[in-house]
Amino acid sequence: MLHFRSVFDRRSSHDKGHFPAPAVSQGRLPGALFSKIEQQRGRVLALQADAADAAAMSRAIDDAAARFGKIDILVNNAGVLALAPVDTLSLEDFDRTLQVNVRAVFVAVKAVLPHMGDGGRIVNISSCNAERMPFPGGAAYAMSKSALRGLVQGRDLGPRGITVNNVQPGPIDTDMNPESSDFASMLHGLMALPRHGRPEEIAAMVAYVAGPEAGFVTGESLTIDGGFNA
Question: According to the UniProt record, where is the region Disordered (predicted)?
Fold first, then answer.
């Protein structure tokens, strides 16, 4: 899972630390990053909620809206990965995968809409595996990410000018998928650019689709994967 707050912070450091709009992101917010955002005169609120718990998710979004007055941007970035062949994957792992990767996204969108004005932005961090899963054991994960492609193509929010898009990263060098891992060389063999992506490369796309320049971009699944799916 990509840590959106981390990459947004790296992006913001190049933009003089400006945090122009109240935004909610599912994901982890390390304490050091919390302090850094505050030092850059950004307002930040960290709330803990299990993405699989719909009531907790809704409360967290309501609390964020109460703190900031409104929510302009929602980034759905929580995700889980359970790798196992279909015949051995437990139903518990399957259900958890869909709860976090699909249901939680729907719950977050539903909860944020009363607090989001016209012209808001919803961005889901998906995966290039929504389109291609080149090795066995990833069927449930690929299925969950493919579901988000259908979600963003819904037209319900168009009349309000709210855009909904997926960003689909390939292998990204984070603590959960480091480029130094033994698994990396296998991944690189599937890519046109044989390296892990950098978090700031994903942040640039997230910042774009969350910004005013992308006001006419919606229903898209934008892949940044170094040619993994080429």
Answer: 1-21
